[in-house]
Amino acid sequence: MTSRGVLPAALLLAVAAAALLLYTALPAAAAAAVAGDHSTLDKDENIQPLSTLNMAAARVMMDAGSVIHASPELLGANGEDSAWVTVNFTTPAPTDGHWIALFSPANLDLIMGGKQSSSSKINAAGEDEAPTGLPMAPIKYKFANISPSFMSSGSGNTSFLLINQRYDYAFGLFSGGKDNPKLVAVSNKIAFANPKAPVFPRLAQGKEWSEMAVTWTSGYNIDEAYPFVEWRMKGEENAKRTPADTLTYTRGHMCGKPANAEGYRDPGFIHTAILKNLWPNRDYSYQIGHELPDGSIVWGKSSTFRGTPSPGQASLQRIVIFGDMGLGQTDGSNELAGFQPGAQSTVDRLITDLPNYDAIFHIGDLSYANGYLAQWDQFTAQISPIASRVPYMVASGNHERTSHDTGGFYSGDDSHGECGVPAETLFSTPTVNAGQRLWYGVDRGLFRVCVGDTEHDWRPGSPQYEFLDGCFAAADRKHQPWLVFAAHRPLGYSSNGFYAKEGSFSEPMGRTLQNLWQKHRVDLAVFGHVHNYERTCPVYENTCTASPGSSPAANGSSPAVYSGVMGGTIHVVAGTGGARLRGFAGGEWPQWSVARNESYGYVKLTSRDQSRMEFEFVRSEDGQVVDGFVIEREYKDVLACIVDACEPHSLAN
Ligand SMILES: *[C@@H]1O[C@H](CO)[C@@H](O)[C@H](O)[C@H]1NC(C)=O
Ligand SMILES: *[C@@H]1O[C@H](CO)[C@@H](O)[C@H](O)[C@H]1NC(C)=O
Ligand SMILES: *[C@@H]1O[C@H](CO)[C@@H](O)[C@H](O)[C@H]1NC(C)=O
Ligand SMILES: *[C@@H]1O[C@H](CO)[C@@H](O)[C@H](O)[C@H]1NC(C)=O
Ligand SMILES: [Fe+2]
């Protein structure tokens, strides 16, 4: 880590301390202060590698002997939304401090704040005296010595995977390492055939089970071209067109740095069309497009999806849940190296597994863009093969929302100035309240899933508490037996180091949702944030309320079966999407912790009818089920009296 990384951290601490002092005077805000910043399980994971490039100190030192060239110049000629680009470069005095960075837009004069190297003051050493203060971070970078011949010959080549992110691109060759960058050569410009093309469609369930939202990104504002989705039920002759809305955000929407500074990048336009009156379990095809003023159409990719099962309907239904994925890496770019080491593996597994699940809940810490907004395009590109086929439901995590003094429950700045704006614009959620409070419920046949927002207050009396009470109550358990709560931070049970140390009531004000889970017989509570896998027994107030009826076979091939009345909620931590794995607290396992694993992977729930639900934790690496259990029960088991949640009744008859 550079010394540069240390200073802001010290500053942040000072700001946090000042904030604490201020908050103590304000009763309403006191809770936020007490909450503190519990998010930082390990400081390293908050350091977006792009932030380690000291672009503010960058100088322009064009060197006639240094050359960088990128090819091909025209990308996506056949409508592709990503393309490999080979960069070759040569410099007279190669060092291990030489690096190559991808910028967009390609106009580096503009990137350098209009400052031309000719107009800058050159000192005796031939250096431009004033740092150029590059106001824009690159999108990707690699050290030049990734090319084996570079150190010996001064020439090398390497390939980058580019996605269509609007605008054109150029590469810069820098010397001086990350701390003292000097731009010595700029490449030719390269561009996608249509930089504005509609890209990366992603689905989400709508407010009604029979609605599907289709969201995508383009370079077309509403006055340039009209966005729509063309779709039809499989086997139907006639396609329908449904108009989409158009949203964007600007630098002014960001709450701090680097999101409103060197990390800012124009997001283009985000479009959402809501397809309505879908038939359950029927297959649909759709295609995104924009109609130009002359009536011609710019088409995006087409894809297919299956209609959501209606509430209470018994049919094969499978749901995937995980948190904390981030970005994978396919081209060796340093901005991703080791940042979320398991993301690519999880994405690859989810693509392979596509025929075997129907919906995804990614419960917070989505891209870890951390204020480097171009990374959000990379994230939507990464998940598009999945999210264009099954609804991709998101929850808000600390890396999306947490930002100083912006109305969130926690202090800290884990969103690095984003304060939820990119995530909440790029993904559609069926929220029924003011958009920035990301809690909602969705029905999927035998399942009802209530998604909480741990970045806003959830204690009794808060709007979120009221919402969750209603959300759980809305499940018709006769027909829709499986009630799931999902949220980012573990509001229930985890024996990760930090949570174990803080005791079982670690999150602020304790497990204040416990009485709701108990009252409504919530079957399962799934959390992210902690980067490991852990499962509890059905638990209430630290005590197991049921044990499996049949013990697992010694060879692990038959899962534990909970049958009848469970009397408590099973808590699962699955922050295993890709961010660096974490261990567990040492010492004895708490009695409620029945399974643990340190693997990248995801939870999969499967049910076909009202009496049986299978739970699996699937390892990304090989698709193996490394943990699982089964719940078997009938409706009367849901109605049964359990501790602290007996309905009042009279003995009269
Ligand atoms: C890079 O490759 C192009 C052809 O793709 C070639 O014309 C150019 O001379 C090469 N430049 C360097 C610096 O190797
Ligand atoms: C890229 O560099 C390797 C050596 O690192 C060399 O063998 C190869 O020919 C180069 N390819 C191009 C297209 O320049
Ligand atoms: C594991 O045990 C179960 C029941 O004890 C048995 O049916 C199964 O064949 C065993 N599987 C393997 C791979 O040995
Ligand atoms: C995770 O589960 C797999 C499969 O049962 C096992 O081989 C592995 O040792 C477990 N790893 C950890 C760290 O618990
Ligand atoms: Fe988190």
What can you see in these coordinates?
The protein is α+β, with helices and mostly antiparallel strands and 653 residues long. The protein folds into two domains: 52-192, Immunoglobulin-like, CATH 2.60.40; 199-639, 4-Layer Sandwich (Purple Acid Phosphatase, chain A, domain 2). Helices cover 15% and strands 29% of the residues. It has twelve helices and 33 strands. The strands form seven sheets. Strands 22, 23, 24, 25, 26, 27, 29 and 30 form an eight-stranded mixed beta sheet that branches. A seven-stranded mixed beta sheet has the order 21-20-19-31-32-33-28, with no helix packed on it. Strands 1-9-8-5-6 form a five-stranded mixed beta sheet, with no helix packed on it. The longest helix is centred in the N-terminal third of the chain and has 22 residues, at 3-24. The protein is globular and about 95 Å long. Residues 1-42 and 113-120 have low confidence and may be disordered. One 2-acetamido-2-deoxy-beta-D-glucopyranose binds at residues 88, 147-149, 156-157. Fe (ii) ion is lined by residues 39, 324, 365, 397-399, 488, 529.
